[in-house]
Design brief:
Mean pLDDT of chain A: 96
Largest sheet of chain B: 7 strands, parallel
Shape of chain B: elongated
CATH superfamily of chain A: HUPs
Strand content of chain B: 25-35%
Structural class of chain B: alpha/beta
Strand order of the largest sheet of chain A: 9-8-7-10-6-1-4-5-11
Low-confidence stretches of chain B: none
Number of domains of chain A: 1
Helix content of chain B: 25-40%
Radius of gyration of chain A: 21 Å
Radius of gyration of chain B: 21 Å
Largest sheet of chain A: 9 strands, mixed
Helix content of chain A: 25-40%
Order of helices and strands of chain B: EEEHEEHEHEEEEEEEEHEHEHEEH
CATH topology of chain A: Rossmann fold
Structural class of chain A: alpha/beta
CATH architecture of chain A: 3-Layer(aba) Sandwich
Shape of chain A: globular
Mean pLDDT of chain B: 95
CATH superfamily of the largest domain in chain B: HUPs
Distance between the termini of chain B: 50 Å
Number of strands of chain B: 18
Number of helices of chain B: 7
Strand content of chain A: 25-35%
Oligomer: heterodimer
Order of helices and strands of chain A: EEEHEHEHEHEEEEHEEEH
Low-confidence stretches of chain A: none
Amino acid sequence: MKIAVCVSHVPDTAAKINIDANGKTIDPAGVTYVVNPYDEFAIEEALKTKESLGGETVAISLGGDANKETLRKALAMGVDSAVLLKDENYRDSLSVAKALAEEIKAQNAELVFFGKQSVDFDNSIVGQMTAELLNYNCISVVVAFKIENGKITAEREIEGGKEILETSLPAIITAQKGLNEPRYASLKGIMAAKKKVIEEKPAAACTNHVEVLKMKKPASKQAGKILGSDATAVPELVRLLKEEAKVI
Amino acid sequence: MGNKILVFVEQRDGQIKKSSFEAAKTASNIAQKNGSDVEAVLFGGSVSNIEKLGSYGVKKVYFYKNAELDLYAPKSYTELIAKQISDSGADVVLFANTSMGKDLAPRVAAKIDAGIAMDAIAVEFEGSELIISRPVYAGKAILDVKITSPVKIITLRPNVFAAGEPSGSNAEVVTIEAGSVNNSVKVTEIKKSAEKLDVAEADIIVSGGRGMKGPEHFHLVEELASILGAATGSSRAAVDAGWRPHSEQVGQTGKTVSPTLYVALGISGAIQHLAGMRSSKYIVAINKDKDAPIFQIADYGITGDIFEIVPALIEEIKKVK
């Protein structure tokens, strides 16, 4: 079975975000980019599934040359091959999903893992959209996954608990933290990844339906009052919560 | 602009969720500005008080009735909403940005080739154009977008848009027998967690971080949460150390929250944590380190020992409650 994993290349969560002079994107200066954290769980699950069922894994990313670094990381962890769908321009989520769907079809991948969201635009929708476009079954925000004789059982996180779901192939699964412990790339893996060729092709052209007007910093929050340094400050805190914040 | 706004109304256990009333009220606020009618769609075998949606501005509710739709059925929900959008001639479709809304809205968008904006914190008109503000980079920045497709799909962050007090008349409820259900993706069971409240939905959150010094001290977080009627949260440090489940992690790789009150105990305030909770209305921080970044956004701070202050706080709240 062919297993695909879709990965994105995003600013490290520790990065400070500044707005670029264009007023529409972040200023990339001084920002370290990494594999999207949720995609690491997706890569691990793809590798584990291949190890138990056999088959072949491919990592797919859409973006500019910088994304090769993230694809290289996927290869180093053990993914067999990598494809970069090249497009340096802004795309909305649906237009990303359309290009990924075409490639997944071309790859004939029956099982596809995504991270549940990219920690840049935070939409958390590309996996579900891709599934809809391909008419694949989809379970999102998955914290436990099992496939046996083509039958998939997964646990998905919801408010105040978990939903247990069943489905079948072809399917898209989006990974939530807690699904697994992503492996570290071995030295051997890193060396092997360096030798592999990342296939590059233009991403399928699509029309955007969402236009970015501007990016801005959130309203800054003023530092408030320090009420004290021990338990004697507690009555004042409770008074403020009751009278000012009105939450007690 | 056309003239219909459709709201997807979510029920769990036959009860309409608060975030759906918020969506209904937001729809009616938009509708008042451009002369739209608000309609709603919901699914299930039996749902209480459907007509009450009228007091949040909904004129007509399409209730697709089938007990098999009590639990989330992604394929059928998607098909039926797409059908209702077309039947109603809706040009704006609102969902609450809940687990279900987040899973369902993009499926609908892909099915009908519509633009979608997730997790909106503001939806405003500029002229005749609907401008949607949504946090990106977990709230480190805000993006203003507009949707250019004929149908615009928006999900609203819970707790941000006020549902207000119900007023006005009941909605007209149109009950439709919902034919056979597509079970190719099927929810077989819901496992409720021991905690009563989820951080993503709670109005008050009490969170603990590395300063709690170990899982054995989190009873303090739980006791304070219980007396405040709050959900318990955690910093990434506490989750990564294995002290607390990931489901309660607040921050960039956890949940982004906007409660009325956020109490941070022993949390220094790493940038990814602040991003996830800075939009809370009131923030209380208790931490020994007076230079901790959390104090820069806290409304009320105490720079001292949590193990001394939190028990005193619990006692004091008991007195005034």
